């Protein structure tokens, strides 16, 4: 298999697996238990929290563990708005379902909530000026992702956050596609809450976290024995948290170096494919700041034929289901027609992607369009 | 360490760890991805669901994966009540924080909700007749745990459920302390929703599930890409689900056999301790149906001294924090005074507990009260 779908999920890094291993059957106690072994587990958990804080550029008490990116987005958004007076919320057109989902239910529960979508330019970038023009006196929250999973565009979160904070409005950033791919400093990003997902950067599935800016008041969305600064109850998934910490350390050490290689591999892939196709593919949002591992390409024909003819390739194309998924919604947001979307594929590379793999992938794709 | 705190958490069984292992770095794809590898992972996930259904005695589509027992209780209760007209809820005095927590917030959000507590007899058993007498025309839900974590009493869930169903009232059963310890057949239990926690029976931390009776309408409490019959969004924690399935298979095979051994070990422990203490300890709820691995004992002196004098022992005593924890609340519910509670310890045995361990534990406890 040539795996070019790292934005969807990544394999666990071997060193992360190794870090988790002792916490399954040996150090299996929970921090609250009355024993020296349990206290040691508690210290390991706090060590993992510190690793994530170090990667994110914040204090460790600003990190709250969750069961993944979806829970992180839900807890940040519903937790923030649960503590607020009903009002207006702005959400970018490029967001993931786990950002749109918690918002879309609000007006049903209380008609005083209004959810408004920030349109996206064909560049794949949300304009801070446009956001500013849409802010209202009763705006409670602006949701803007860090980077888009499909076209890879990196959003001007800081510029948006500054404009919001001037008016006392909070910003939530779904940074699940950004952590581990580009360096993220939440203090520089200036968002009030930031969502992190472990399995997007070689950490364990079922792990995630939120950065919650010091002093910010959130309501929990699930209830039980108080854990995680009162925001997330339940026995801690210790191996998951330890794994997330190990993945954060790995990302902090290797992310910048890996990025240069990934951008090079990505461009090599596009060049190689362009040479072999009769019409070169269109690189979407090419002129915008993008994730180094991600490229969305518009091809001369139906992209889904690749799944049939090149079975060893794993990459993303539009799925024909309804409601439209993130793939289709993101491309519609940048102005692509449904027929163009059907001809688009998203390639996302990872730390294990080789030069040979991208060359072989380019050839397989070209062959699929030759037949 | 002599670990006698299996009701709090268990080590992962070696065969469960083995079952999970390939899904971290080898079969790391997600079911929704467009590739044969991803489809195989989807099949493994459904296989795990079938194992849990086989253990629980239900259909696999009645099992919804969660991130643990706390989320399971929250989703069952808030999901059920979210789809109901505000009204009256009955909850037993013995419940865990993750059952009480979601309920206690309801009247704040909508004053039409009334939460009423079902008192417990000194036997540690909730009386079905008492529950019946407390039902009202607007009762929406009755919450009754399967077994109590502290005194180990097994509740007459079926008798309560029959009385509730006669009037069209739903029953939620937190069975997190029962699964894997005694055979549980949800069709026999007759509860409408049942919570399961993986780390309570040699499965992974961060794993859990709910049985949701076929046809029952629940609202999700988190939102995103639809997964798990629309009830639980987010990328599946594949290794966690596989591990929960493996733990369920293990429990189904060995639970009955292990129970005889555990009950014997427990009684041996109590006998051994009684012989060595000047005053024999009081076994709480001794005449009631109890979990075979669990015993709560009232001793001649402060139980917490054991933590200082017998550092190799891991077992549960009352914690001096406020609000009172499950330990203190459960014992108060059966009528013990706070000074009696301070003299109580809860021993919970597991599959790896040996005869030598319980004898040594009994001697260590007796020594602690000798000094």
Task: Provide a descriptive summary of the structure in words.
Chains A, B: It comes from Stieleria neptunia. Chains A, B: GO terms for molecular function: cysteine desulfurase activity; iron-sulfur cluster binding; metal ion binding. Chains A, B: InterPro entries: Aminotrans_V_dom (IPR000192), Cysteine_dSase (IPR016454), PyrdxlP-dep_Trfase (IPR015424), PyrdxlP-dep_Trfase_major (IPR015421), PyrdxlP-dep_Trfase_small (IPR015422). Chains A, B: Keywords: Iron, Iron-sulfur, Metal-binding, Pyridoxal phosphate, Transferase. Chains A, B: This is Cysteine desulfurase. The structure is a homodimer of 371-residue chains. Chain A is of the alpha/beta class and 371 residues long. The first copy, chain A, folds into two domains: 124 residues, Aspartate Aminotransferase, domain 1, CATH 3.90.1150; 238 residues, Type I PLP-dependent aspartate aminotransferase-like (Major domain) (Aspartate Aminotransferase, domain 2), CATH 3.40.640. Chain A has 14 helices and 13 strands. In chain A, the strands form three sheets. A seven-stranded mixed β-sheet of chain A has the order 2-8-7-6-5-3-4, with helices on both faces. Chain A has a four-stranded antiparallel β-sheet with strand order 9-10-13-12. Chain A starts with a strand and ends with a helix. The mean pLDDT of chain A is 96. Chains A and B meet through helix 3, helix 4, helix 5, helix 10 and strand 12 of A and helix 3, helix 4, helix 5, helix 10 and strand 12 of B.
